[in-house]
Amino acid sequence: MADLDLELRELGRELAFPPTPDLAAKVRAQLEAAPRSSPRTRLLRPSRRTIAIAFAIVAVAVGIAFAVPPARTAILRVFGVGGVRIRLVDKLPERRVDGARIFGTPVTLAKARRRLDFPLEVPSVDGFDAPDHVYVSRALPGGVVFLVYGSVQRPRALLTAFTTSGFPYAEKSAGPGTTYQPVRVDGQPAAWLAGAPHQFAFRDRGGVFHTGTLRLATNTLLWRVGYVTYRLEGDLSLDQAVRIAESLR
Amino acid sequence: MVGRPLDEAELVELARRGDTRAYEALVERYQSIAFRTAYLLTRSAEDAEEAAQDGFVKAYRALGRFRPGAPFRPWLLRIVANEARNRRRSAGRRDVLALRAAAEQGSGDAAPSPESSALAASRRETLLAAVGSLREDDQRVIACRYFLGFSEEETAEALGWRRGTVKSRLSRALTRLRERLEEEGEDDG
Question: Do A20 and B31 form a contact (C-beta atoms < 8 A)?
Fold first, then answer.
């Protein structure tokens, strides 16, 4: 027993670890998709403002009145679709227009489905039935998937899906340049945001907030299928977006 | 890269200036320990892969804050471990640690007799089961210090504890482990 130290060290050498995946290539691909020198990297560096927004989102989650940033922005209305809260504010916190937030591991559609805790449906209309890239991450409870149409750097459309477990994980802040319109997808309440870029923030399952202004999110449709929230962004008209949304299979 | 291989400090410096190739070399160097660290903290190969990958990406983006000349490994492992701990908080299926199959177990020593190797294997199984029965913090500190071979300082970084806490928690974890092993011994007897 005196040699417990030694025994434990030996035990460590005999442990069965899963094989180490080849991370080098994946990391490099991810870095090259969003290089540090670009303004996009601001997304990943938490700033004081990010923290302020994070606290604000906690406030939304527990239903407390709040203002972001304090004393500068009045919140005009709050809507909710699935796991996303939409706040209409009179002024967006200053933030650069950054890249689309695509993260996770590039996978096939079949693999993405295996890694998600929810059934993933994919649009069946022409041009949207086969995404060019699929990224999946377990950063959100249940997982989150990004279906990328076009290039990862500059997608023409992006469909994101994640589960909704009762309270909002994500939030959009829309300023005066953005129009919000309640719409219906398959008869269910949905939201259409059009116009100026709006901010998007979400809380990952570690409780960490990620925020960013979506370059892509000029027009966004948010809707829900059961407990799964879908977000379609792209240069699409409302009719096109609803048609795509209603074609999920 | 020609001539002699670049040392760590040179690679870090190149990566700081945006050289993703240099950073890739660092990832190659540390991906195994990063993945294993994340695996011991998450007990899920998928979560560990994601935590390690995200950790490497975040570390790259944070290189501007890295103090030149400081050791890179503990700094990196702290970021990876943080990613892993965040993922561990969620529910989900977790692997139980196991020993490598006997055939894979390479030993530098002269071939032991079948009896003694069977005995050693059984002792290791007992020890591993006893570690697995400990509370999570105990398992983590043991994993960092013994299974990953971290220093006290690295363990403190990885677990987000103070160094003094690592010392006291490790000591208590080992006491509890000895108690478990004694209980096991009594059961056998």
Answer: yes
Contact present, A231 and A171 (Cβ < 8 Å): no
Q: Which of A68, A74, A66 is nearest to A94 (CA)?
A: A68
Residue B159 and residue B140 in contact, taking contact as beta carbons nearer than 8 Å: yes
Q: Identify whether residues B78 and B21 lie together within a single domain.
A: yes
* Residue-wise pLDDT tens digits, A6-18: 999 989 988 889 9
Question: Is residue A181 one of the residues assigned to a domain?
Answer: yes
**Angle formed by the axes of helices A4-14 and B163-188, nearest 10°:** 90
Local confidence band at A202 (pLDDT 50, 70, 90 cut-offs): low
Q: CA A135 to CA A29: how far, in whole Å?
A: 13
- Residue A63 pLDDT class (50, 70, 90 cuts): very low
Distance from CA of A204 to the nearest CA of B (A): 9
Which residue does chain B place closest to A40, by CA atoms?
B61
Whole-angstrom distance, CA of residue A154 vs CA of residue A215: 9
B73 shares a domain with B27: yes
DSSP letter, residue B110:
P
Asked whether A75 and A53 are in contact (CB, 8 A), the reply is no
Q: Residue A213 is part of which domain span?
A: 44-246
Residue B55: the pLDDT is: 94
pLDDT for residue B76: 94
Cα separation, A133 vs A148, whole angstroms: 5
Any domain includes A2: no
Q: Which amino acid is it at B70?
A: A
- Model-level pTM? 0.52
Query: Across the interface, do A15 and B35 touch by the CB < 8 Å criterion?
Result: no
| Token reading at A146 | 């990004």
The number of C-beta contacts closer than 8 angstroms across A and B is: 133
Strands A199-203 and A170-174: antiparallel
